[in-house]
Design brief:
Elements (H helix, E strand, L loop, with lengths): L7 E9 L7 H19 L2 E9 L4 H10 L6 H9 L3 E9 L2 E2 L1 H9 L9 E8 L7 H12 L3 E2 L4 E4 L11 H18 L16 H6 L3
Parallel strand pairs: 1-2, 1-3, 3-5, 5-6, 5-7
Antiparallel strand pairs: 3-4
Helix pairs in contact: 1-6, 2-4
InterPro entries: CE1759_FMN_reduct (IPR023932), Flavoprotein-like_sf (IPR029039), FMN_Rdtase-like_dom (IPR005025), NAD(P)H-dep_FMN_reductase (IPR051814)
Organism: Actinocatenispora sera
GO molecular function, one term: oxidoreductase activity
Length: about 210
């Protein structure tokens, strides 16, 4: 991390764990992504965005658990997250926590993938009573993964969509969170592409038995 604010392009991966189509979780994901892109634009930075629907990778994530490795469909997705400058992660709320699919995806990420990586967290639920899921479940998860979690997480209850508050309270939270994530991204150098062979033992060392 540097004190300067480098310009250029950054890549954002937005992850939605919504199970339906259409999905309020996907809607919140898109709104957070748009706010982040606007925040980056204000800082003179263009953004490349890729949005991931985890429900489309559910079988591949389950395969990873039973086989111990990512298959050919899941590996590119994991690499996309590993090479992104920032992650937007949004889940529906189940039993006062994140969904099993959401947690499973981050369980199969390679260790250290999100270290020092800016992450914006969001959650949706049927009632505002579950809004503490952000601080009781999501923030501890990403802190454990050594990510840099944006100060503002956004919880959207069903009743907020389409109400007047959607254009005031919810909209303001989304804009603030997007700007915070943009500032975290701008304060860092672009993410270096992960080299899967960086820690491999040199062939000469293997021949000499010095590994």
């Amino acid at each position: 991390m540097t004190g300067a604010t480098p310009l250029g392009r950054r890549s954002i991966v937005a992850i939605s764990a919504g199970l339906g189509a259409p999905s309020s979780t996907r809607l919140l994901t898109d709104r957070l992504t748009e706010a982040t892109v606007r925040g980056l634009a204000e800082l003179g930075i263009e953004a490349d965005v890729e949005t991931v629907e985890l429900r489309e990778a559910a079988h591949d994530i389950a395969d990873n658990f039973v086989t111990g490795f990512a298959n050919s469909k899941l590996r590119p997705l994991l690499s996309t997250v590993a090479n992104a400058d920032a992650v937007i992660a949004v889940t529906p709320t189940f039993n006062a926590s994140y969904s099993g699919l959401f947690k499973s995806f981050f369980d199969v990420l390679d260790e250290g993938t999100l270290a020092d990586r800016p992450v914006l967290i969001g959650a949706t639920g049927g009632t505002a009573r579950h809004s503490l899921v952000l601080d009781h479940a999501l923030r501890p998860l990403f802190s454990y993964l050594h990510a840099v979690v944006a100060p503002t997480g956004v919880y959207a209850a069903t009743e907020e969509w389409g109400s007047a508050d959607a254009e005031t309270g919810l909209a303001k939270r989304i804009e603030r969170a997007g700007r915070e994530l943009a500032a975290l991204v701008a304060a860092r150098e672009p993410a270096a592409e992960a080299d899967p062979f960086a820690t491999a033992t040199a062939f000469e060392d293997l021949l000499n038995g010095t590994s």
